[in-house]
Design brief:
This protein is of the alpha/beta class. It has 2 domains: 111 residues, 3-Layer(aba) Sandwich (Rossmann fold), CATH 3.40.50; 180 residues, Dihydrodipicolinate Reductase, domain 2 (2-Layer Sandwich), CATH 3.30.360. 40% of the residues lie in helices and 21% in strands. It contains 13 helices and 13 strands. The strands form 2 sheets. The protein has a 7-stranded mixed beta sheet. Strands 3-2-1-4-5-6 form a 6-stranded parallel beta sheet, with helices on both faces. Helix 2 links the parallel strand 2 and strand 3. The mean pLDDT is 96.
């Protein structure tokens, strides 16, 4: 199959490399406003470079990957849908939940599959954790803990348009909590502070945050995030039930140092960034997209799924600002 890629920045170039290595993908058609990025894709992957998203759509591609800046996501998703081409788009759907809802309304009933990129759904550990919940082997859940700690803050220009740590970073935790547990969030309480980069505070955001989510069956989920984890990229998930408990991310590349006497775990080189932590998950995710393009599967993460995670992020952002619990129904007014 022939796949088009719109945007060849850090994640777009990474996706191009992954797609080029998939057996199902015969060729790539790429575009990016930076000429050097398209030249690199041509040289590395034998891709065909064109000068616009419209040209990619006109090139007879079977599927489209949107990896452009967030502000461009809605227009690019809808252009692909209007052309009847299945589309994979990196999260988020749009910069705001209102725009995401506009996209949702536009794609509903179109018959065109839209796959939003929440890569943790394809991480082997998260998949196994979900199976443990669904099988009942954990019993009734009482506590979930989801952690995302970045090795260093993103650039100031990125922070200025990110929408804040809950919309940009913690939204991955919100999505995986929903997906693994199969439950919805009903209430949140969020707090945060600034421990390092001054430009994050200047942008009205926090660099370290925590949120307690109450799920619709009473389970409590604790989400922890920070832009500062010098040891590496730390992503973990714990599920504690009345019969058993499981953890995702407790392996030798965990970026956490034990100070217990005689402890040798973790023994490996810590994960440096999300691209090495989730390399296998990204490959599985894009492989799943090729199945969607081939018509053998439906979207494993729809626009509606992404909107649900965004509602949680909106509630947490409001909770942080007003220092109070916020029920999800309060923000579902758009």
């Amino acid at each position: 199959m022939r796949i088009g890629i719109l945007g060849l920045g850090r994640i777009g170039a990474f996706h191009a490399a992954t797609l080029a290595g998939l057996e199902a993908v015969d060729s790539l058609v790429v575009t990016d406003p930076v000429p050097a990025a398209t030249v690199s894709a041509v040289e590395r992957f034998g891709a065909t470079a064109v000068d616009s998203p419209e040209a990619v759509i006109a090139a007879g591609v079977d599927g489209i990957v949107v990896a452009a800046a967030t502000d461009a996501h809605p227009a690019l998703i809808l252009a692909a849908v209007r052309a009847g081409i299945p589309v994979f788009c990196e999260k988020p759907v749009a910069r705001t939940v209102a725009e995401s809802l506009d996209v949702l309304r536009a794609v509903e009933g179109s018959g065109v599959e839209v796959h939003i990129g929440y890569n943790r759904r394809f991480d082997a550990g998260c998949v196994a954790a979900r199976e443990a919940v669904l099988s009942g082997e954990l019993g009734k859940l009482h506590t979930v803990r989801s952690t995302t700690l970045d090795p260093a803050p993103p650039p100031a220009a990125y922070v200025a348009v990110s929408g804040g740590i809950f919309r940009d970073c913690a939204v991955h935790d919100f999505d995986i909590v929903r997906w693994v547990t199969g439950r919805e969030v009903t209430e949140v309480y969020a707090t945060g502070g600034n421990r390092g980069a001054e430009y994050i505070a200047a942008a009205g955001d926090v660099d370290t945050a925590s949120a307690i989510l109450t799920l619709d069956d009473g389970t409590l989920a604790v989400v922890s995030n920070s832009r500062h984890n010098a040891r590496g990229h730390d992503v973990r998930l714990e599920l504690h039930g009345m019969k058993d408990s499981v953890a995702v991310g407790l392996e030798d590349r965990l970026p956490l140092r034990s100070v217990e006497p005689g402890a040798v775990f973790p023994a490996g080189t810590p994960h440096h960034f999300f691209m090495d932590r989730f390399a296998d998950a990204y490959r599985a995710e894009l492989t799943a997209f090729t199945e969607v393009v081939a018509g053998r599967a439906t979207s494993p993460c729809t626009v509606a799924d992404a909107v649900e995670a965004s509602w949680v992020a909106e509630a947490c952002t409001l909770s942080l600002a007003e220092h109070r619990p916020v029920r999800l129904e309060e923000v579902r007014t758009i």
